[in-house]
Amino acid sequence: MYKVVIVGKPNVGKSTLFNRLIHEKRAITNDEPGVTRDRLYGEVNWLNNIFTLVDTGGLTIKDAPFQKKIQIQVNYALEEADLILFITSLKEGIDADDHFITKLLKKQKCKNVILVVNKCEKNQYYENEKQFYSLGFGKPYYIASEHGIGTGDLLDAIISKLTNKIKRTRIKKDRLPFCIIGRTNVGKSTLVNAILNEDRVLVSPIAHTTRDSVDCDFSYKNQNFTIIDTAGIRRKGKITNQVEKYAILRTQDAISRSKMILLVLDGSEEFNEQDEVIGGLAYKANIPTIIVVNKWDNIRDKSEKTMNEKIKIIRSKFKYLPWAPIVFISAKNKKRLHLIFDTMQEMHKQLNIKVNTSLLNECILKMQSLVPASMFKGGRLNISYATQVKGQVPTFVIFTNDPKYLHFSYARMIENLIRNSFGIDRVPITVYYKDKNARIRGIREEQNNG
Questions:
Q1: What is the stated purpose of this protein (predicted)?
Q2: Which of 29, 140, 160, 402 has the CB geometry, 3.0–4.6 Å to 132, for a possible disulfide?
Q3: Which of 329, 352, 375 is the last residue of a domain?
């Protein structure tokens, strides 16, 4: 799919235009300059013409924080661009930053450039038209991205430029999307870069350098993946500005778009309460999760004994994720990364396991005959039938005389039986209990009431 890259100085509305064209609020928008730091990717469909849109950080000649790394990100984007949208602002007019970007585009011989003048809500732009023409990119397109004014004409111009390049059919949904979550500065962005072998995401020792979710596509052993890097999460009491609050919402959105989660921990530090809180997000989402212990290179004693001690601590702190595989890696040194994807492929197979109905019933009814349920809430649970149904994780419905007689310990026994009997030990499963009146109650509800 061909790429259209958005460039411009800070605070001219690049991210607002990005969100408008992809019809999602993927990029964080705020009046504070420099909110977008990484390059973000989204898909645009205009009259059945589809292309990838790339948002980039604001370029300036000033010595602003992260500016050098932002320029590296922009350079990467320009190298892969089929068309560039150079965004300027009617409100601010042309300044030194715009001339700096003009020189950069011409130095890199970017021939396919559309000049866009944003923030034209009042339609009083002709009096300043000469200054925009002076940049040398021809007739500018005037828009107000916040209100959608002029964006249709801009999209027509983009399609016209890419007439012979646009792919007119959607990419097959054959990718396995997963997100990386964890508290700040545990090495999430370093892990993304190590996986992709490029500086796709800014890496800095300063916490909170990633504030958007960043989607990246790649393949491993004939499996296509989409990796969604997310902003690090801090304690609620430490969330001091609106942008970081939006970043947390992006993390939750990234989880909702994922089929798997990598929960990254810092193996060189003590695990803390915030690690557990973030792990709880994975549990609540009921999405297969790998616990990734990063910075293993900082551990002097890398013996099996040390590793087992760490595993024991993790299991005690993340009791709600007993099925989650644990892998030890060094993202910085790109060591043991293959374990992540080998594990993901094993988990993917388990997600697609189809259990034969007769074998499932034989297994559960045999257990019931050997270990009948105890009396609970005035009755004894009696299972009559079980079946697997469609779900994002292996999901089973068990028909009983009345689910209110189910004790959580018996539910746990049945879950462990299904896992052990059918080789589902690395992903979550869901078991519902249904009575003759079709009242459904899940295991988690029973545990909460029990």
A1: GTPase that plays an essential role in the late steps of ribosome biogenesis.
A2: 140
A3: 352
- Is 415 marked within a binding site? no
- Cα–Cα distance, 131 to 391 (Å, whole number): 58
29 labelled ligand-binding: no
Per the domain annotation, does 299 fall within a domain? yes
294 has binding-site annotation: yes
Residue 345 resides in a domain:
yes
Which of the 8 DSSP states describes residue 434? E
**Residue 448 placed within a domain:** no
In a domain, 440, yes or no: no
Buried b (16+ CB within 10 A) or exposed e, 259-294: bbbbbbbbbeeebeebbeebbebbbebbbbbbbbbb
Check the annotation: does 93 bind a ligand: no
Annotated binding residue 121: yes
Same domain, 186 and 265: yes
Q: HSE on the CB side for 71, CA within 13 Å? A: 15
Q: Mind listing the pLDDT tens digit for each residue in 154-172?
A: 999 999 888 755 544 343 4
SS3 content of the chain, % helix, strand, coil (to 5): 35, 25, 40
**Is 400 annotated for ligand binding?**
no
Domain count, the chain: 3
Residue 305 labelled as part of a binding site = no
Is 65 annotated in a binding site? The answer is no
The answer to whether 136 is annotated as binding is: no
Q: Which of 251, 230, 221, 217 is nearest to 337 (CA)?
A: 221
Residue 381: give its domain's CATH number: 3.30.300.20
Q: Is 42 annotated as a binding residue?
A: no
32 and 155 housed in the same domain: yes
Say whether 237 counts as a known binding-site residue. Answer: no
Contact criterion met (CB below 8 Å) for 436 and 401: yes
Distances (CA, A) of 366 to 200, 323, 382: 54, 24, 12
Q: What mean pLDDT value characterizes the chain?
A: 83
| 259 known member of a binding site | no
Q: Tell me how far apart the alpha carbons of residues 205 and 301 are, in angstroms, rounded to a whole number.
A: 24
297 is in an annotated binding site: yes
User: What six digits make up the tokens of 428?
Assistant: 């979550």
Task: Please check whether residues 180 and 306 belong to one and the same domain.
Answer: yes
Q: What is the pLDDT of residue 49?
A: 81
pLDDT at 411 over 60: yes
Structural domain harbouring 391: 357-435
The structure's pTM equals: 0.61
Q: Which residues pair with 379 in a beta bridge?
A: 376
31 appears as a binding residue in the annotation: no
**296 marked as binding residue:** yes
More confident residue, 244 or 407: 407
